[in-house]
TrEMBL record:
<dbReference type="Pfam" id="PF02983">
    <property type="entry name" value="Pro_Al_protease"/>
</dbReference>
<dbReference type="Pfam" id="PF00089">
    <property type="entry name" value="Trypsin"/>
</dbReference>
<dbReference type="InterPro" id="IPR001316">
    <property type="entry name" value="Pept_S1A_streptogrisin"/>
</dbReference>
<dbReference type="GO" id="GO:0004252">
    <property type="term" value="F:serine-type endopeptidase activity"/>
</dbReference>
<dbReference type="InterPro" id="IPR037295">
    <property type="entry name" value="Alpha-lytic_protease_prodomain"/>
</dbReference>
<feature type="active site" description="Charge relay system">
    <location>
        <position position="262"/>
    </location>
</feature>
<dbReference type="InterPro" id="IPR009003">
    <property type="entry name" value="Peptidase_S1_PA"/>
</dbReference>
<feature type="disulfide bond">
    <location>
        <begin position="338"/>
        <end position="365"/>
    </location>
</feature>
<comment type="similarity">
    <text>Belongs to the peptidase S1 family.</text>
</comment>
<dbReference type="InterPro" id="IPR035070">
    <property type="entry name" value="Streptogrisin_prodomain"/>
</dbReference>
<feature type="compositionally biased region" description="Polar residues">
    <location>
        <begin position="28"/>
        <end position="42"/>
    </location>
</feature>
<feature type="disulfide bond">
    <location>
        <begin position="302"/>
        <end position="312"/>
    </location>
</feature>
<keyword id="KW-0732">Signal</keyword>
<dbReference type="GO" id="GO:0005576">
    <property type="term" value="C:extracellular region"/>
</dbReference>
<keyword id="KW-0378">Hydrolase</keyword>
<keyword id="KW-1015">Disulfide bond</keyword>
<feature type="active site" description="Charge relay system">
    <location>
        <position position="234"/>
    </location>
</feature>
Length: 390
């Protein structure tokens, strides 16, 4: 690995910003990371200065707004799993509302009054919903068992709308196979249909940059784990050798899954080592990783990749099924941060919390687009890995 870059990452003081904790009656708890609680002293600072700079550029925020949003998102990420446990069967989803800076929790009409009051006292806004999260998740699971034609881009639960959103590729709505799929999907529960672009993975042929290579494919490192790093599954098969930015040997794909999932991990050796750093590419400072608390829908998220480098956006949906040409991939998170070929496998991070590795998307960083990432905690759990944190 590039020694000068690592020295910079390891020694940089990295200006950090004070955070706010969630108010209310819920106890602090970890929200996804098995290695470090999200509310620990080491993760109290929401982000390094570079994250704030990137959010200013990509989300149109002032510095003050970016700092305040990161603090509010951190509080919401801590509050969300506690709100779900408090609501029980009446839970209908939650999301971060950027204008108010608060977590919004949807509850069915059957929610106990005590649970509603407890969630409101915690600082969250409460909305009434017709369908519970359990009902919506069940409807999506039934759609997951269908075979989607190429004209269907994907589907996910939208807690704000209280439905499962099925995305149809623009110009394909009248296709007979699409119509049959939509007819079957509507039988599973509440479904709405939206137009979208066709999703694709973001691997690329061998070009210059700061990537890793397997064969003639260039992808991007996601996050360091003890013993290696995680990345996208479509970038390589188990046993495939991996070389680094300088074409020296790094290690080997130890596990990989694509489609159905889009994750993999690569062992590291031959003089390479792991560090809890996401590269800023000179656009922002290199970022330290302190945990993997899941960011709710509506939160900001930034992405690092070997082609388009640093870009930020917003989490649009969790647990989306994406219908690539190679087959459906499940449990992806949807964002409007842009990406381009070669960014596959790269890092998604909110504040200092790892979120996932780039899977695919549509569009580019000139005209905009949407992307999906495979959540980091699922990858860690699947392979029994431990995230390398600072």
């Amino acid at each position: 690995m590039r020694r000068t870059r690592l020295a910079h990452a390891a020694l940089a003081a990295l200006l950090v910003l004070g955070g706010l904790s969630a108010a209310g009656t819920f106890p602090a708890s970890a929200t996804g990371s098995t290695t470090e609680p999200a509310t620990s002293a080491r993760s109290a600072e929401p982000a390094a200065d570079g994250i704030v700079t990137a959010m200013q550029r990509d989300l149109g925020l002032t510095r003050t707004q970016a700092v305040a949003r990161l603090a509010a998102e951190k509080a919401a990420a801590t509050l969300a799993p506690e709100a779900r446990r408090t609501a029980g069967a009446a839970y209908a989803g939650s999301w971060f509302d950027a204008p108010s800076g608060r977590l919004t929790v949807a509850l069915t009409q059957e929610a106990p009054a005590a649970a509603r009051r407890a969630i409101e006292r915690s600082g969250a806004a409460v909305r009434t919903a017709e369908h519970s999260a359990r009902q919506l998740d069940a409807a999506k699971a039934r759609i997951d068992r269908l075979t989607a034609p190429p004209g269907v881009g994907g589907w996910h639960v939208d807690p704000k709308a209280g439905t499962v959103v099925v995305e149809v590729v623009r110009g394909k709505r009248a296709d007979n196979d699409v119509q049959r799929f939509l007819s079957l999907a509507r039988r599973t529960g509440p479904v709405t249909v939206e137009a979208s672009a066709a999703p694709r993975t973001l691997a690329a042929g061998t070009v210059g940059g700061d990537p890793y290579y397997t064969g003639n494919v260039r992808c991007s490192i996601g996050f360091s784990v003890y013993g290696g790093f995680v990345t996208a599954g479509h970038c390589g098969q188990p046993g495939a050798g991996v070389s680094g930015w300088d074409h020296s040997y790094i290690g080997t794909f130890q596990g990989s899954s694509f489609p159905d999932n889009d994750y993999a991990w690569v062992s590291v050796g031959s003089g390479w080592w792991t560090v809890p750093v996401v590269l800023g590419w000179g656009t922002v400072s290199d970022q330290l990783v302190r945990g993997s608390a899941v960011a709710p829908v509506g939160s900001s998220v930034c992405r690092s990749g070997s082609t388009s480098h640093w870009h930020c956006g917003t989490v649009l949906a969790l647990d989306e099924t994406v219908n690539y040409s190679q087959g459906a991939v499940h449990q992806l998170t949807k964002t409007n941060a842009c990406a381009e070929p070669g960014d596959s496998g790269g890092s998604f991070i909110t504040g200092d919390q790892a979120q996932g590795v780039t899977s695919g998307g549509w569009g580019n960083c000139s005209s905009g687009g949407e992307t999906w990432f495979q959540p980091i905690n699922e990858i860690l759990g699947r392979y029994g890995l431990t995230l390398h944190t600072y």
